[in-house]
Amino acid sequence: MHACPNDCILYRKEYEDSTNCPTCGISRWKEGKDSILKEGVAAKVVWYFPPIPRFKRMFQSHETAKCLTWHAARKSIDGQMSHPADSPSWKLLDDKWPEFGNEPRNLRLALSSDGFNPHSSLSSRYSCWSVILVTYNLPPWLCMKRKFMMLTLLISGPKQPGNDIDVYLEPLIDDLKSLWDGIRGVYDAHNGEYFTLRAALMWTINDFPTYGNLSGCVVKGYKACPICGDDTPSHRLKNGHKICYIGHRKWLPINHPYRRQRAAFNGKPEYGIPPEPLTGEEVLHMVENGDRVCWKKKSIFFDLEYWKYLPVRHALDVMHIEKNVYDSIIGTLLEIPGKNKDGIAARLDLLNMGVKTDLQPEYGERRTHLPHGP
């Protein structure tokens, strides 16, 4: 599938026969070294692998078709959420659309996207993006196996699509709409019958920057918290030249001792209460009415009928968060060059904030000494 090099459109539907992008005017074809257009050779290509035929083939396997209804037979014994079937999103789909929930063969999906460098260390600036679907109907020991993780989109580089990723998601969203309406004549090998297959996308799973691209939420700057929004407690560090977020203690229990500590944090006690996350309907109302202080765009996922009702629409990949936090902590404790977050700028910023003033840098004739913490 051909795409505009500037991520404006896909050459499909009404643009299928176009030779120039109607938005930016750039040619559809690749320009050679002699500045001559190579007609028939696309300047940018995206590979789309439709999921519907693969869902049909899954039900044509007796064993796989049986596993796809595994969730209907399981019971939560301890009342804890041990599977997505115990989640509020799953239960909302069952309650709000009972005709969907009463059919255990209807699929519940998750979408994950991230960029990678296919050239390893040969080209560090090249970024290729993949979009993968996961089927939660399967047992936990199968749903994350490579066999059942469906690659649906492969977006060529060299640059990442960023906020324009919605352009590339259009064919997938069209298929998800068709799956929500129902695909007739799907054969179930386990029960030996034909049925109408439906599917719903429950949420996306990604790192924080990709979260901003998919949801349309601002993830940088002074209002980068998706929950706090306009009330994000941010502060720009004068020496570190970065923005820090210092209001995290409000999520602790109201009687937690950390709330009353001053010297260990920003020199102030914390008596605030955490804000309530915005619902999908509230987010949709904000972006449609021009209230976009914390929103960059209207996400294409809102084209799905059920999306605005889901309590959790985007989830963060814990692996990325754990790795980054671990690297920062270990790098600082072991004073690893390049990963140590403790330095003169950090100490001066603490001094400006009135925190740990006894750790301010000590300037000598030859070098600056950083006192060790307690």
From TrEMBL:
InterPro entries: Transposase_21. PANTHER family: OS08G0208400 PROTEIN (PTHR10775), TRANSPOSON, EN_SPM-LIKE, TRANSPOSASE-ASSOCIATED DOMAIN PROTEIN (PTHR10775:SF179). This is Transposase.
